[in-house]
Amino acid sequence: MKAEIIAVGTELLLGQIVNTNARYLSQGLAALGIDVFFQTVVGDNASRLKEAIAIASSRADLLVFTGGLGPTMDDLTKDVLADMLGRKLVIHEPSLARMKSFFASRGAHMVESNLRQANSIEGSAALDNEAGLAVGNALEQDGIRYILLPGPPMEMKPMFEGPATSWILQEYGRGAALHSRILRFAGIGESKLEHELIDLIEAQTDPTIAPYAKEGEVTIRLSSKSPDEAEALKRIDDMAATIQSRVGSYLYAQEDIPLEEAVLRLLRDRRHRLSSAESCTGGLFAELITSRPGSSGEFLGGIVTYTNALKHRLLGIPLEMLEGAGAPGAVSEATAALMAQRVSETTGSDWGVSITGVAGPGESEGKPVGLVYIGISRKGMEASVYTLQAGGSREMVRMRAAKHALYRLWTLLKES
Q1: What is the spatial distance between Cα 50 and Cα 264, in angstroms, rounded to a whole number?
Q2: What sign does the CA torsion over 404, 409, 411, 412 have?
Q3: How far apart are CA 279 and CA 305, in angstroms?
Q4: pLDDT in tens, 74-126
Q5: Average pLDDT of the chain to the nearest whole number
Q6: pLDDT given at position 175
Q7: Residue 13 CB neighbour total at 10 angstroms
Q8: Cβ burial 354-378 (10 Å sphere, 16+ → b, else e)
Q9: CA pair distance 294, 299, nearest whole angstrom
Q10: CB 193 within 8 A of CB 218
Q11: What pTM does this model have?
Q12: Residue 349: other Cβ atoms inside 10 A
């Protein structure tokens, strides 16, 4: 069984809305044992939508649409598909009754265009919309099945999980479901990770190994397809164990969580608290940490000391260390170590992290763009300093520095 997802909406093409529906549906269909080989995005244009449907029909058994079921004239999905299949649009009376009740309960007037949301393709199964007004459709013709879902995720998700999934199982039965596990790595680049695992990647059959990079991190998705969940999970376990035996020092999670969450969990387990002092990253390290719910239990706070004056005034870094001929300078091992130590002492935290470097666009203190020093101080111990030479744009340098600081902290916490 091969499926294609067709997302309808000019706003998607313009980048005004991110197509999160495609990701959700791909995962949902995979769990039902249905392969998604193509995803298409098409605007609110009848001729281009017809072309997209014709192409998809030539290479997929199941076409899943999202969007284009609303009340306006540019909501064309049902109209176009009905025309291509030679079927009429008819009013789905239960949806119309629900719609009238909705407007009446709010004392609002239902305009004529709202009737479009109760349209259903003749001969199709209606998919009730418990979270909105537009009824969905499911039908089969000439060996191809079609599912029409609304665009808003809060309406699409319950419709897919409920009536659409029931219809799929009724039509197809449950195939060999795809089971997956995410492995998350830090402190190693995608090419280096691939090099360490190249023989496994080249010989892969089941499970499959799919590496992909995010800024400052690398992810591997292990996937196995089997009607027997226990068998699939055993294959994944075995492959994960092999990968861990090779590159386990970089493997921070076997689930889909960011590095900052892994750090916070280790801090929480040890009942330790953290603070930070940042220069070139401008508070990005603290932003990553505080983006995680519940981080206030482990993170006391951060200081952005962007100038030498504030490094001196807030952290007590001697000016003779920061300025003048022969001084180490703000971008140095010595300054990074002292910044980490002082922020830990100032806040009373168990761990202090500092980041100082050159984010660009030009050199600073005669030091190259991308040179970053990361200091990590643990209460009662001498600070450790790590050097990073990051490439890329200014924003890439900042993110890579913040992620590398998290990785180094994670490594020390794991060993503590």
Answers
A1: 50
A2: positive
A3: 5
A4: 999 999 999 999 999 999 999 999 999 989 998 998 998 899 999 999 999 99
A5: 95
A6: 67
A7: 16
A8: bbbbbbbeeebeebebbbbbbbbbb
A9: 9
A10: yes
A11: 0.74
A12: 23
